Amino acid sequence: KSIRRLFALLDADGDGRLDVEEMKPFAKASGFAGGSGKWASDFASLCSKLGADPSVGLTREMFLGFINSKCDYFDDERVAKITAKMESKRPQTPQAPPVPPRPPRPIAVPDGSPIEQMARPQLMAELFRVLDKDGDGFLSIPDMRRFAEVAGFRGDDAAWAEEYESILADMKLGPGDGVTASSLEKFMDDDSDDGFYPSDAELREMIRSLHPSPVAPPAPASEPVPAAAPPTAAPSAAEPPRMMEPPGFPTPP
Fold this sequence. Notes:
Elements lengths: L1 H9 L6 E2 L1 H10 L6 H15 L7 E2 H10 L6 H13 L31 H12 L9 H10 L6 H14 L10 H8 L11 H11 L43
Antiparallel strand pairs: 1-2
């Protein structure tokens, strides 16, 4: 779990790979004392050993494999110290004036239970329910991407393809296997480097972010306004009576 956190801290651009500049702080925190030229050479050598392109960088799996291959040096305590050091060097954003906390939006599941009163198994079941949009009991690739994004993933399509493959491997599933509720629950209850263990509060926030916002009821229809009657033409002035011509009186030309 701490190695995953360390990778996320180093991956400044969130593309799912660590390039030469992103790996440099890790190298310095691990004891590297050379200059930029020496580090570029060492990084290229490391990429060559791990089968990576130095211009692209290391994937998370390569980074995890490297750490695990040096477990006699990068033990849990050392990894935790390096992670803490990386945390301390993160740029601090200016603190905004405190605002009164807004109460969480109440959300009730279909049986009427509010999520604030749910135990962890119920929360994980509700999370799966809101992810499984078509209700077929399996999470598709788009469903899993929504899960990854509310869990913090920010990469592009290429990075997501690698992340999805890694998640399936961590779940011990093949590319053709669907992610079921039990698979997701085991993954979220695994606090090792192969799992993802959110707290109950984090689970509630994930569910809230996935739930659609309440839809306001439509405004009541107003009474139909009767169509205005066509205007009545103003009466024209009465024409003066026409003088009748006497019989046989010729009309002037």
